[in-house]
Amino acid sequence: MPTIRVLPPAGPPRVLALAQLVNSLGDGAFYVTSALFFTHVVGLAPARVGLGLTLAWAVGSVVGVPLGRLADRRGPRGTAVLLALATSAAVGSFLVVRSFWPFLAAACLYAAAQSGLAAARQALLAGLVAKEERTGVLAHLQSTLNAGLAIGAGMGGLALYSGSRAGYLTVFALDAVSFLVCALVLRRLPAVEPVAAEPTAQGSGGPALGVLRDRPYTLITLLNAVLLLRMPLLSLGIPLWISERTQAPAWLVSALFVLNTLAVAAFQVRAARGVTSLGTAVGAVRRSGVIMLVSCAVTAVSGVAGVPVWAAVAVLVAGAVLYVAGEMLHSAGSWQISFDLAPDGRTGEYQGFFGTGVTVARTAGPLLLTALLVTWGVPGWLLLGGLFAAASYGLGPAVRWAERNRRTEHAATLMRLSSRP
Q: CATH topology for 1-195?
């Protein structure tokens, strides 16, 4: 039996993991305290906080592609460092804002810098890690991310327990510092040379937002956004379901979150081990869709009338175990697909676009999941599971379409180059 590394290989992968760990510690604390910080410390109404964050992440989804393209053209290491510093500045500015418009400006800077940083780091990874090793390294980074989030969430829990203004301010200050340290760690990586624009089958290096002309990749990104509805499902859908539709105790929400983060930290590398090509990636995503369908069906049982508390808890835990298995397979498959189908020299741009699926899921997910799960109940769970399965099976034909397009574009480019005097 091959062994599973706890740490990524030495060199750039390990430095990337350290950068991931540092800022995920701050992010974990941020996630569990931000809602109360913005209402209790900043003094905003909850509705205004929701509106501001929705607008901010909408901005982040728009600027992620041009910032990813900037990483390709100007160099991903320098771009990632600057965006880590910008994220630190955004978090730091939350410490002093006390009204809606400054909050909105800081939130937009935060979302834009985070979206761009994610794309730049993917481009940096693509330039430093061999193609066949990327999915394995990404699995290590995801494990590191979840370990950091779990520890950070514990730190944030101390602030929640104290309930003091000083506690919240300390958490946000630590989050700002974590991105400063992240920038310093990223500077330790070797520089990756910027990539000059290459002529495409359409005869240009591709305009800004040229990825939108790649219809197969756009379809893949949309289908992946459907599968990413699992993200607000864990943070919003299941907590609302437990509180509104089941007899399970409220503390189970926290227990399921801990179960998820620890499972990903422990098993994501193993789950990604067999994903080494587009074919194996499509198979992993397809299996994840089926598992998510079963998870939704199992979880729905907890809301059936007459189910006792102990049975509801057992069913919810079983559904959560299936959920995390589906999550890890989807993550591994989607990483491989998103990298393998990005043209050479445009990794940052394509990763920036692919990352908008996260924003779409976070923006549209709360409304959709509230309607499906809280309003419709058990039928809503079954419909949601059907969406996961349908999207996962739809990725196969979409990936084959993208592969055909790549071969056609490559052949056209070679013919055009060979015809030049």
A: Growth Hormone; Chain: A; (1.20.1250)
